[in-house]
Amino acid sequence: MLTLDLNDARPLHQQVASAIRHAIGEGAYTPGDRLPPARDLADALGINANTVLRALRDLRDEGLLEFRRGRGVSVAGRADGRALLVERARELLDEARRYGYRREDLITILEELP
User: Fold this and answer.
1) Name one Pfam family in it (predicted).
2) What would the pLDDT profile of 47-72 be if each residue is shown by its tens digit?
3) Which end of the chain has fewer CB atoms surrounding its CB within 10 Å, N or C?
4) What is the pLDDT of residue 65?
5) Structural domain spans, the chain
6) H/E run at residue 50
7) Rounded to an integer, what distance in angstroms lies between the CA atom of residue 73 and that of residue 35?
8) What are the angstrom distances between the C-alpha of 112 and each of 14, 24, 85, 108, 109?
9) Tens-of-pLDDT digits for all 114 residues of the chain?
């Protein structure tokens, strides 16, 4: 089951996307598996269904999920490491902001790495 951390400063849709990525990474959902309807996920998490839909769209745009009319949302068979890298990059950006760095500063730091 997916859970959210109420102490997490990230927007809720990012937390939901992260929780789904984690569930897929841990094998709770495998390629081809259907996710519960957005409304059911929202009810279980105690949040708005539009927040869950935004997270699902983000994951679809990353290639991790696919939407099929009449069949719901399922884990894409072609999911690769990109989704994990996107999640880690978001976490790194959040951490950098907590230390007062901007996105551009973080890009500069990354470009300086060997």
Assistant:
1) GntR
2) 999 999 999 999 998 888 999 888 89
3) C
4) 93
5) 12-112
6) helix 49-61
7) 6
8) 28, 33, 19, 6, 5
9) 688 887 888 899 999 998 898 888 777 888 899 999 999 999 999 999 999 999 999 999 888 899 988 889 999 865 556 667 777 888 899 889 889 999 999 999 999 998
**For the chain, first and last CA: distance in Å?**
40
Rg (the chain; Cα; Å): 15
Give the global pTM: 0.69
The Cα 34–Cα 75 span in angstroms is 6
Residue 66 phi, psi (nearest 5)? -135, 140
What is the length of the chain? 114
Q: In the CATH hierarchy, which fold is given to the domain comprising 12-112?
A: Arc Repressor Mutant, subunit A (1.10.10)
The set of residues, in sequence order, having a beta carbon less than 8 Å from that of 62 and lying 6+ positions away, is 82, 83, 86
Q: What is the pLDDT of residue 83?
A: 65
Distance CA 47, CA 72 (A): 20
